[in-house]
Structures are given as structure tokens and as C-alpha cells.
Amino acid sequence: MTATTTPARADRPTPASVRPRGGASKTKTGRRRSWMPFWLLLPSAVILIPLFGYPLYQLGLLSFLKFGQPQASAGEVAEFVGFDNYSTLLGDDQFWDVLFQTVVFAAACVVATLAVGAALAVLLTRIGKWPRLLLLFAALGAWAAPAMTGSTVWMFLFDTNLGLVNEVLGMQGHNWFYDKWSAFALVGVVVVWHSFPFVMISLYAGIESIPVSVLEAARLDGASTWTVFRHVMLPMLRPILTIVVIQSIIWDFKVFTQIYVMTGGGGIAGQNLVLNVYAYQKAFASSDYSLGAAIGVLMTLILLAVTIFYIRALRRSGEEL
Amino acid sequence: MNRTSATAVRPAGLRRSKGNRTVSRRIANTTAIVIALLTVFPLYWMVLSAFKPDGEINSVDPRPWTWHPTLSNFRDAFGVSGFGGYFLNSLIVATVVVVLSGLVAFLAAVALTRFNFRFRTTILVMFLVAQMVPVEALTIPLFFLVRDIGSVAPQFGLSTLGSLMLVNLAFSLPFAIWMLRGFVKAIPESLEEAARIDGANRFTILWRILFPLVAPGLAATSVFSFITAWNDFVFAKTFILDTDHQTLPAALMVFFKPDENDWGGIMAASTLMTIPVLIFFVLVQRHLVSGLGGAVKD
């Protein structure tokens, strides 16, 4: 695993060297028109426009209609209701509760994932070969475990009567899913278990790709450990850090399977709902498709705001697309 | 290389005494091993429980080993619950998605790295934004879309594997293209240049020169397409209304019964579902880090 980080460092072109190469046959300014890229992109377009773009448009459209069971199965004409679904939603206390819970849950997961991932990435640089391989492969296992099976295993570990954890703690009969926040905490642990390996491995690869000479030069100039970290390593890791942070925010904000499976579709009386599951339940359990769509649109907008922030952060750190 | 960088990121270590350093190194090693064991423990527990006889699973005194390993949980899963069929369904969907998304993403990645055209940046940003869309929310319009497709092309309608192939293909593409871009970018253009001078046409360059060179990257990318399709729970749950065409994640829910969970069966099914992904990961792990590096950096 570590072997690949070396060539990656050498191969990775600096932004400056990419541009001139990109126009090797035809310069950027004087390039002749070619239909080649359009032919190459055609298969993607054929798949993505009807199966991604069109549903996205439909999602927006649905959120402005009154679309329930009669419209879905009996084919009744859907009525245009403007922003009615949105005002219903914003006037509903449960929506605000779910939004609040989603943000708190996602934020806690992001912070924990990053803290664990970063700490272990640093640890990886300071240990012997065998412990490192062991930790890397253990992380690979957690990473590879499907969200579904990860959820089932942790549920079994924390099972009320047959779970190992209750047995070890002498708490047999304790239901971890009964209390809202203990259920959230447990799901959070599973989410972190699934996602810290990505952070750890990305950051470790990033640290390893910092040229040793740079760090040595800083040290020779009399920089302290902290200074080397703060003013040499951190700036060089920033692009990777940005991606890892944003990627974590997006993943954790969208958690679905773990919540759905572990809390049985949103917990007792919906106490463990997050926006994603809430939208799904509104649509497919309550047959209020348009209200579900409105929740989906709001979620997309929130994530879009994060994305825009992400692209701007990338641009600011000197990356180019 | 590892040793030099390890000392380099630990400049203060040089100033410490040698004995002090061995102690701290030993503590670090121990911490790493303990964390590694904690991380794999749930997976170990899953496999162990899959092989445990029912009596030990339902015992209130679970032990982290078993003296009586049995295949009865697996037999139940395959026999009683028809697990083999679900496994096959999942495998078919995932394979089709991996192959198609690899080919399509390769073409798109070449277009986006080797050519400069008007909406290139716009298209790139769109692929990035596409990754942010909450897929579960799109299930609502997709459900109606798939239902309508079914009346025109029955093999892609509700309760078909075709519908799962289509949607998982669409949702694995943006990331696959994004990640493959890094791999295509890393290949020196001089090779294609040389081939061009030797008179190779574009088609030859694409398939005979570029494709073999990108192949390792394609393997790493395909893991993520595979995971998208293999792990997909929400589409399978929503689109597949009969049990014959169900895939693994949604079929696993069959084992859940209120208060009376068949944990042995669930763990056996979970083990079977995890193994293919694990194998895939281990096979391509060497390219995973550099690939993510590429996806991350560019």
C-alpha cells in the first residue's frame, strides 16, 4: 500500500505542468474544432440525462404539485399548488426537529470521523511496518463492509438480550435504541467505523507524499515540530483536507441505510429520523410524494450550498478543474 | 522510504534520547495494534457468529470463540431463505454496472482530460455536483419513471434487475468519471503523440494505447461502481416488489422479525454479502490510494 504512494507523488503533475500538456497537439488558443470529445461524452449523456437530470427536474416539479395516492395509482391529474408543500413543511414542528437532528448527527459524525481518521493517519507515520500493515488492512475491512452488513453486525453486538456488549457491561436487558440520543450515538459509531478509513488512508497518503527534503530544510532552518506542522505540512495537506472534510459532510448528511436498518425506519415514533429517511417515509409510507419531494429539494439545496463552498475553497487553494 | 519519512515527520525525535524513542515507538505500535483489532472485531464477530450453532447464538453468555462450528446457518440461508438467488441477482446487477460504467467513464474521462472544448469546466462541475445529490430523494421521481418505462420496455420496469442496472449505472458514473480523470491525466501524452506520428488513428490510440495504461485505474474505479450497485438498498427496496428479483441488501431485511431475530442467519447472510467486496478491495488496494489521490487532487 505504501509502495504506491511513491509513484503517485512523482506522477502527480503540478497544475502548471498540466495545461501545456493538455494542448500538446493543438494549443489551447489555436485549437481546431473537433467533434471527438462530444462523441466520447455521448454515452455518459445518454445515461445521465434521462436517469439523473430528468428525475432531478421531476423532483423539483413534484414538490410544486399535490401528488398523493390518487395521483400515483389512479392516474388522477395532479394539481399545481405552488409553494404549498414548502409552507406545510416549514410550518411543521416535526420538520424542524428532524432538520435539527440531521445537522447535529451529521456534524458529530463528521467531527468524530475526521478526528479519528487524522489521529490514526499521524499514528501510521510513526509505527513499524507490521503494525502499520495490520492497521491498514483492518481499516480496509471496515471500509469494504457494506453499510447493510455493518449495520446488522453492530445491531447484533448491541442486541438487548444476546448482544456481547451488554453481556460484557453487565447490562443485559438494556435497549440501546430506546433512548433517542443513545440510538443516534450507536448509529454514529457505525457511520464513523465505516468512514474513518477513507479519511485515514487519504491523509496518510498525503503526509507520505510530502517530500522529505522539504521537512528537512525546514528543520535545518531551526523550525520547531509545531512550526513544521503548522507552516509546512498543513498548507501542503490543505487540498486533501478540504476534499476529505467536504466528502465527509456530504456522506454523513445523507446517511440512509444505517438509520433505516438500525432504528427500524426512523426509531420509536420517528425519534431517529434524519431528512433523507424522513423524505422517504413521507413519500413511500404516507404516500405523500409531493411532500417527500419538497424535503428532497430542500436537502439538495443545502448540499448544493456545501458544494459551492467546496468548489470555491478548491479554487482559492489554487486547484484547477 | 517509509523509514526516512517517518523520522522526517518527527523531527523532534532526533533530539530525544534513544531509549525514550524506543519507548514511545513501542507505545505507538501497541496503540495501533489495539485499534486495528478493535476495528476488525465486528467483522470477526460476524464471521464467528455465522459459524456458531444456534444454541450458542441464543445463549445469554456469548463467548468470542466456538468449539462447534457449523454450516447450518449458511444452509438455512441458502435453503430456506433462497439466499442463492438473491446473491446471483446482486452479482448480475453489480457486474453489468461495473463493466458498463467502466467503459462509459473511460470515454468521458478521456474527453475531459485530453481535449479542450467550450463547456468542459461546466461539465466537470456538473459531475461534481451530481455526486452531492441525495440519491434517496431521487427515488421518488425515479419510482414513477421506472414504472412508466416498464409499460414501454418491460425488461426495465418495476421488479426487474434491468431497472436496478440502469439507476445504479447512472449513480455510479459521476464518481467513476471524476476518479478516472486522475488516472488518464497521469499518463504522459507523449505516448499517444508517438503513436499518432506512427500513423495510428484515434480509435487505435484510444483502445490500444490509452485503455491498457488506464486499466489499473479502471480496476480501482470499478470498486466504487461495484460498491454502489452491490450495497444499494434503497432502489432495490423501492423498485423490486416481488421476492424473485430482490437483491441482497433488501433481502437481508427478510431475516429481521420483531423481537425474534435469527441472528445466526443474519450473520451468515452478512458474511456472504461482505466477502465479494472484501476480495475486490484487497485485489485493487494498491491502486486505491493513488487513485483516490488523483480524484482528490484534481
Automatic annotation (TrEMBL), chain A:
Residues annotated as domain ABC transmembrane type-1: 99-310
Localization (cell): Cell membrane
Region (Disordered): 1-29
KW Cell membrane (keyword) present: yes
Keywords: Cell membrane, Membrane, Sugar transport, Transmembrane, Transmembrane helix, Transport
Membrane topology: Multi-pass membrane protein
One Gene Ontology cellular component annotation held by this UniProt entry: plasma membrane
Protein family membership: Belongs to the binding-protein-dependent transport system permease family.
Protein name (Swiss-Prot/TrEMBL): Sugar transporter
Species per Swiss-Prot/TrEMBL record: Embleya hyalina
Taxonomic lineage from the root: Bacteria, Bacillati, Actinomycetota, Actinomycetes, Kitasatosporales
Automatic annotation (TrEMBL), chain B:
Parts of the chain that traverse the membrane: 27-47, 86-112, 124-144, 164-184, 205-227, 263-284
Superkingdom per UniProt: Bacteria
GO biological process: transmembrane transport
Pfam families: BPD_transp_1
Every ABC transmembrane type-1 domain range: 87-284
InterPro entries: BP-dep_ABC_trans_perm, MetI-like, MetI-like_sf
Keywords: Cell membrane, Membrane, Transmembrane, Transmembrane helix, Transport
Topology with respect to the bilayer: Multi-pass membrane protein
Descriptive protein name: Sugar ABC transporter permease
Organism: Embleya hyalina
